[in-house]
Amino acid sequence: MRTAREWEVYVGEVVLLVALELSSKVWRLVLGANGRRRQATLEPGDGAKFLDALARAKAKLGLPVDAPVVSCYEAGRDGFWIHRWLAQHGVHNVVIDSSSIEVDRRARRVKTDRVDADKLWSLLYRWYGGDAEALRPVRVPSHEEEDLRVLHRERQSVVKARTTVGNRIKGLLAAQGVKLEGRCSTWRGQLATVRTGDGRPLLPNLRTRLEREIDDYLAKCARIKALEDAQAAQMKAAAGAGPFALIELLRTLRGVGMQSAWTLVFELFGWRRYRNRRELAASVGLVSTPYDSGQSRREQGLSKSGNRRVRTLMIELAWSWLRYQPQSELSQWWRARFSGTQRGRKVGIAALARKLLIALWRMSQNGEVPAGARFSVAR
Questions:
Q1: 378 is a domain residue
Q2: Is the pLDDT of residue 3 over 50?
Q3: How far apart are CA 312 and CA 100, in angstroms?
Q4: Number of domains forming the structure of the chain
Q5: pTM tops 0.90, yes or no
Q6: In the prediction, which pLDDT does 89 show?
Q7: Which residues is 93 bridged to in the sheet?
């Protein structure tokens, strides 16, 4: 874990530490140095007032005009543009994983923006002083890396919305004892002739609603197709360069499709660097959380504190791996250890997902193929 001491130029200097508590209505700043601190508020995105607040704080706290500034804020809806803007103005900023911030365990506690800002500043002070566990910075992607995550994230959102609409259509029909057959493109035409369970045609209001729902479903299908075409066009334009080469490499494995490889590369492998397998597994929440206190010992399950998109994908990919790579060492290990009971299968699939993630990471980094894996295309 890196600390602010990586900025060695600041060692021995008095630094202005700034914590930003962000909201849609107001930004609250806590600025401190020399054992003192002060607060300021400003309109969201008011850069001029932010720089003025820094200048005022330096003057009030007895710092030189050119004193270095280190700031932090929690990762959230405001994204990373603030981090980039601060860097442009000479502020060394860190974006904090909000789930890593310490929380008082009392049943009720004071929760205001002022209190949160003070707490964040205190943690920044400890972190800058060398306490690596006080805060956990997140890796900030470049503009290009952030843009490459748009397509698959949009597709995942649309697929989820399409599933919701599809379930709603099925529910409305099931309430009438009706089930539509064939491809979704034919559903609308079937509404005129279909009969309910007791032999009646669909009533006009229900039929009109079902037509709207089916149109919505088909529109989402078309949107998903457009997104997949955009992905294919980018793959073709890249011609196997940069991170797109990793996508093509992972796709050669049976059971790993285009969407799985695309998500793994642009969420993890294509722009983040991991020192070891534990750090990789922790980044997606595929690590155990044992509880061991006194005579009480138990396993609390996965931490689920990392990238939820990749965590969900790896569980699905683990089941796919068992189906399409039955002779691989990972599949044989899972069957020998976990296939006996239903609970064992559920627990074991998470363990397989973790091992598979590590195996795919090693393949993307140094070309190490998972033992016993088969390829879907010639290499």
A1: no
A2: no
A3: 21
A4: 3
A5: no
A6: 95
A7: 71
